[in-house]
Amino acid sequence: SSSSSSSSHHHHSTSNSSSDKSNSKDKPPDDGGTAKMDRDVLVCSRYETAMATAYSFLSVFLAKTGSKNEEIDYRPLFENFVQDLLLTVNKPEWPASELLLSLLGKLLVQKFSNQKTDVALRVASLDCLGVVAARLRRDAVTSQLKVSTIDQIIQRVKEAEDRDAPLLEDGSAMLNSAPPQENGLPEKHTSKKHKKKKGSHSRDEPSSSTSTAAASGGASKDVEEERCKFLQRVLLDWLAVNAESDVALLHARHFYIGQWYRDAFSEILRQKMGPSIITPKASRKHHSHQHRKRKKRRGESSSSESDPGSEEEERPEDQITEELKNQVKALAEARKLFLLTKVTAFPPASPGARTQTLQTHIGYDDAELITRYLASKRSFSQSFDVYLKQILRVLTESAIIVRTKAMKCLTMVVEADPAVLARTDMQMGVHHSFLDHSTSVREAAVDLVGKFVLSRPELLDNYYEMIAARILDTGVSVRKRVIKIMKDVCLECPDFPKIPEICVKMIRRVNDEEGIKKLVQEVFQNMWFTPVRERPSLDEVTLLRKVNNITQVVITCQDAGLDWFHQLLQSMFRPKEDKDDVTKIHTEPPKALVTSCKQIVDCLVRNILLLEENQPAQVNQTVVTLEENSSGGTTESASKTGSASQKLVACLKTLHLLAKIRPQMLVDHAITLQPYLALKCQ
């Protein structure tokens, strides 16, 4: 509870500082230039004071979680606090959550990246950042679906405002003849009507309002910026109307105004260039650039707290052309002027008239969607890449506990969005951990890939070689995990071309330690030696796929010999105790095993006859060579390119292996097979 109170207290203090600014802004400016500068300095310094407060609060709180000298354990409090922030972020009435999370992210990266930090605090920071990064990723995945919804909300609000338009008719006429003053609107009582009409008017016909467009250098023609301004207005009005029942919402309003005002340039720039080009880091650099200019005006030194990530300044500037910069400046100026008109929520003279002067046409859910949409323009919502890179960076750390924790963080992120595994930096990081000298890290890495690779078959190609190599891992737990993943691949992606190779790799573990031996038997029991459906009719497709798979494995095993395969069959049919004791009477193998082998034998014999029917010339050659396909092609390529003779020999070899283990299965087919005794193999 103490954590929540500090959070809400923080919102108030931040917002209070912002609310002071509304009073000072209502004073008319002396002259354009200095007023504009002072206004910028005023708003930005208020907001940056709030940032500094937030930053010092978080620094102290985080330091307490890692301190051994505290009487109480601050860790659960801090974890709860972070959960509170994640619950309230992007909720319209908690605007400071996003700022706190943004600063917290930078702080956590600082802590766990610094090797001098105490290990316990590094691990805790890493864990916390993993939670935040996973949440960011989840939000990014879900909010992609929301743009159409946003347009529907805008449409609804506009229709509702058009219905109310007759009430505002005079106001709109006045608006066109006399543009509002820079420091707000001239007359208190009608101010809200003007604003209402102004907002919907400029949003409805961005192209027709040529006078405003000319005035702001073509700024109002930017469709996305118009959409944002419209949504900002609607959200501020919603907060003002609802502040009747909850006064704290007025502080939230001022916080939003201060934040949107200060960050207008960087948000619009990111909007223009797209998140792929202007990274969160780049936009921060631009802030710090402007921020330093303002500080210089006031003759102060730039404060490090407000921007912990501003050391690399130059790069993104190269990508920003002068033309784009001017265009963004004009749009940012237009946004700032518009925000200033919203500072006073209600005409103070007549509080009784609130409902007439200000209406809101959205409910809480819409307000939340709008908040999310506007937040997606800000750097925090796009800071996932930065966080992920920092987590990947510590995979090369010397402390095992830190590397293991980093793997767990990545697992949280991939749970939120398996597509992250397709990223090149992610693949490199995971590959590095596959070769880590700690078994626990390797197991965590294999586990991470195994969990999610099946949900995205396209990822299988990227990770197959890495996983396959780990079947020879020195750690038993790692080998077991790999075999389980391979089994899932065989069962869930039956068309994956490397399945014969996977089977061979698994069969070769048949003499491994007891636990793995048992696992391998279970895998093949499920895959090959479980009967297929016979009633109402035989499931030909599954049976044929299974038999093709087995013959492919036999072809692939060619070079290494078929001993492994024989041992596998032996372990299935004759459990260990029977083999050791010669005097023991052989117990009958399980009925299901016999049935499935009988189905396989029948299918193989049918295959042999079909092969002979279709390509008698090839089959009747007395010498059959096997070298061509010994490397093991795919099932398809074998059926298209592998010669009939190769397939024939594979079928006969498989029958031979089954006959060695249980001859009675071939009795019915003895006459059919008799002519093949004359074949010579090379």
TrEMBL record:
Instruction: Read off the Gene3D superfamilies from this record.
Output: Leucine-rich Repeat Variant
Record-linked Pfam families? Cohesin_HEAT
Q: Which domain of life is it from?
A: Eukaryota
Q: Residue ranges under compositional bias (Basic residues)?
A: 190-200, 282-298
| One GO term (biological process) | regulation of gene expression
Provide one Gene Ontology cellular component. Answer: Scc2-Scc4 cohesin loading complex
State where composition is biased (Acidic residues): 308-321
Q: Which InterPro entries match?
A: ARM-like, ARM-type_fold, Cohesin_HEAT, Scc2/Nipped-B
- Location of region: Disordered: 1-37, 170-223, 276-321
Q: Where is the composition biased (Low complexity)?
A: 207-220
Identify a single GO molecular function assigned to this protein: cohesin loader activity
Protein name, please? Nipped-B-like protein A
User: Which species?
Assistant: Hirondellea gigas
